[in-house]
User: What shape does this take?
Amino acid sequence: MLEQNKKIFFFIIILIIIFILFGFLFYTNNKKNSIKTKKIDNQKIDDQKVDNQLVSEKIIKFKEKRPGSIVANVIFKDDCNDMVGEIKEDCLNEAIRNEANIANNFRMCLGVTDYDIRNKCIFEMAKFTTKKNCERIADHKLAEVCIGDIGINNRDESYCNVFLEEPHEYEECVDRIKAFSVGDSGDINDCIGIKTLEYVNLCMMRSLGNGTTCNDLKNKNLMDECISSVIFRQATSSEDCYKMPDEIYKEVCLLKDPEGERVDTDGDGFTDVKELWFNTDPFNIDTDGDGFTDYEEVINIHSNPTEKDTDYDGLSDYDEIQKGTSIQRPDTDGDGILDGEDDDPLNKFQDNDEDRLSNEEEKKWGTDPNKKDTDGDGVNDRDEVSNGTNPLGEGWAHDTDNDGLIDIDEIFYLTDRLNQDTDGDGVNDRDEINNGTNPLGEGDMDFDDDGLSDKEELKYKSNPTLKDTNADGINDSEAIKRGLSIISNDTDGDGLNNDFEIQKIKTDPLNPDTDGDGYSDGEEAKNGYNPNGAGKLNI
Assistant: This one.
């Protein structure tokens, strides 16, 4: 009995040991799998980080892209597929901006959800469209630059009126357009009135391309500059430099780096050659002595480097920066008193977001004084207030007149955001857009000239852009008069085209069995029989 108990005891011990071994093996195997899974997960995270980083680098490169330039490494929507969160949204917005650039398609920019990226996209595309499209840019600075560019394209100085409250910007805009206009006409003496930055030189160079010469200039100083500029571009020796009548050009020429003209004598950030072009002093870091270097004025604060007081308000540019007033606008707070004469040039009329609504006005309307476009619908707050739309609307989806077109699209189509039927022809603006007709037509307009007004076409469900909607050979209005369908080209369903029945075999397009013999016109015609009586078909 004792011997039997010992055997049972040892058997139990062996079972326990086996159980422990199996448990240990199971634990170690699970741990290995867990570590492997964790490594795979970490690898996925690392791969995601790498993908995000690669696309982020692409985005950064694209953001640095200047309008009109070509960048090989650009963003497309497929690049964003494996991304998540804000980085994906940023990627998609840049992809839309890129695709809009490639397609020169302004409307694609409306799909961008990010405020700044959308503004940049519209700014780039607006060059291919109109002043109206420029006005859709919620950032007024970008909008004004855009309008200025349109002014150049149209050679129309009236476009510069958008800068009337900013004397330097206005003068620069007018001079820029003059430079291009004079260059077109070829009369170099018209360049004499141009003063700002590089535009007088641009004007002269464009005029010279039209057959005039520097000697045709009636202004001696400008003639010397012109002659010196021409010689400067061709100079290969000091002897050439000494031929220049303008002393500053001559001195810069003698100092010129033969490998690239990169000499910056005064160390202001502009090369001497660039300063000649800008009409600043290449030997003086601060040409106008206002406390800012020439480079800072042109590049950073966009003031006039040859005028201490860019906006002529009685405060130097340096003092304006110190006080927080505008360098460009002589009356920063809009109270009718020049900043230089105003005891408090930053009173209640201050405009933090520069949307042309004062902080006080923003308070009245309930808009955000620090956001140009409070409701994010792509339309500047001040423009919404001026046009009678709601600056606190529903963003992109807001439709003031409930015509089915959101306000920002109404701006694009030039329709009235407060009127469902802008042209008063009885057809809703959205229906006209969807049907391809003109929402700005005159009364009961007939877009396709088929004898049916667009309003009537909507009623009959025909195509207002096609004279013959069903392509049966019969004008839509004629089809209506005959009682024929203008949607189907086989009104009676006999398998024969309406026009074929009328013109060729003289059957009734409203009766599938014209001769009443029990066979449809289509069956008879198909088998060579006359569907309009006895005998064979003869056509």
